[in-house]
Specification:
Distance between the termini: 33 Å
Structural class: alpha/beta
Number of domains: 2
CATH class of the largest domain: Alpha Beta
CATH architecture of the largest domain: 3-Layer(aba) Sandwich
Number of helices: 13
Order of helices and strands: HEHEHEHEHEHEEEEHEHEEHHHHEEH
Shape: globular
Helix content: 25-40%
Radius of gyration: 24 Å
CATH superfamily of the largest domain: Glutaconate Coenzyme A-transferase
Strand content: 15-25%
């Protein structure tokens, strides 16, 4: 059975991206600013995928790296970090000037609403009407009319601004832990994670830790993405570096500065990609190279100090209505009698 349907979806990042990402696909980052799935993004770059379309609430280094490597040619974004202000030329500047990418500008609210509508199966969803007066609505990008529209409110007759729902081909997401089936648990700054992941047709998850399903079941409130949405699970410690992951490590500001310092120059930017993406086979080699360059103590200084939450008690009696003999004390009858009662009352429907 294909692993997409199987209960065990654990595989390497290389296999996951190779199997589930096709040239020309659309995808969404199901993390924003925090816990970024950079190991998975690097694998997409490493495999030289082409002509991808990306949805992202707020980009930091991941968008610039995808642009510099030529992976994406369409972007739907609310924000992309610009280190150094107007003084520096960024990978996004270069891509726009060279005609390598087209952009659709949204707000955080309207872009998230696109995902929310898609996740709930709605063709569109209302958004705050005040945005009508802004260039976000007035100026169109490559999506043209496939963003905003006006409809009549059936209750008041007033015009309502709506945004189209989208279902990207896949999402990439990093979490603290997941089981082998793909139940993915995330805590900390959620931002867009729930709706982006649920909107996607399939989700590729990387996790700091792979745990037994019993662990997931003991803390169900932390499960952001259920297994049936997930096509691949990758065990990937440090998979979000240099962004932060609650309970594991803090963000690495000097390393980020190293990238943004390099990104302002095209040759230096490509040299950074060579060193940290193309010339390492996977995230483990990436971390080994980091230790070689900066020392193990530098890496370990990023490790989080424990700050556990108070456990929640999910206990019940776990008592079944029916005992091992098929008798219910609560109903005062066995299953046969119960079915006869339903039949006598006309509750059971004819199977024909």
């Amino acid at each position: 059975m294909d692993k997409f349907m199987d209960s065990d979806k654990l595989m390497s990042a290389s296999e996951a991206i190779s199997r589930f990402v096709k040239d020309g696909d659309s995808f969404v980052f199901a993390n924003c600013l925090y816990c970024m799935p950079l190991a998975l993004a690097h694998e997409i770059i490493r495999q030289k995928k082409k002509n991808l379309m990306v949805f992202q609430q707020g980009g930091i280094e991941e968008i610039d790296q995808l642009l510099e490597s030529g992976v994406i040619n369409r972007m739907v974004v609310a924000y992309n970090f610009r280190a150094g202000g107007k003084r520096l030329i960024t990978p996004l500047d270069r891509a726009l000037r060279q005609g390598r990418v087209v952009i659709e500008e949204m707000t955080n609210h309207t872009l998230l609403s696109m995902m929310k509508a898609g996740a709930m199966g709605y063709p569109f969803i209302p958004v705050l009407s005040g945005i009508r007066v802004t260039d976000v609505v007035k100026r169109k990008g490559f999506l043209g009319d496939q963003r905003f529209a006006e409809i009549k409110d059936p209750f008041t007759g007033k015009d309502v601004l709506v945004v189209k729902g989208y279902n990207p081909d896949f999402a990439i997401m990093h979490v603290q832990r997941a089981d082998r089936a793909g139940n993915a648990q995330l805590w900390g700054a959620m931002i867009n994670s729930k709706w982006a992941a649920l909107a996607a047709k399939k989700v590729i998850v990387s996790a700091e830790q792979i745990v037994d399903t019993e662990v997931v079941m003991s803390s169900p409130h932390l499960t952001v993405v259920p297994a049936h949405k997930v096509c691949a699970v990758v065990e990937c410690p440090w998979g979000a570096h240099p962004s932060e992951v609650a309970g594991h490590y803090d963000y690495d500001l000097p390393f980020r500065a190293l990238f943004f310092g390099s990104a302002s120059n095209e040759e230096a930017s490509k040299a950074w990609l060579d060193e940290w993406v193309y010339n390492v086979a996977d995230r483990q080699e990436y971390i080994e190279h980091y230790v070689e360059r900066f020392g193990r103590d530098t890496l370990l200084r990023l490790k989080a100090k424990p700050f556990p939450s108070v456990p929640a008690d999910y206990g019940f009696t776990f008592k079944s209505v029916w005992d091992e003999k098929g008798y219910s004390e609560d109903l005062g009858m066995d299953m046969k009698g119960f079915l006869k009662m339903l039949e006598d009352k006309g509750v059971l429907l004819d199977g024909d």
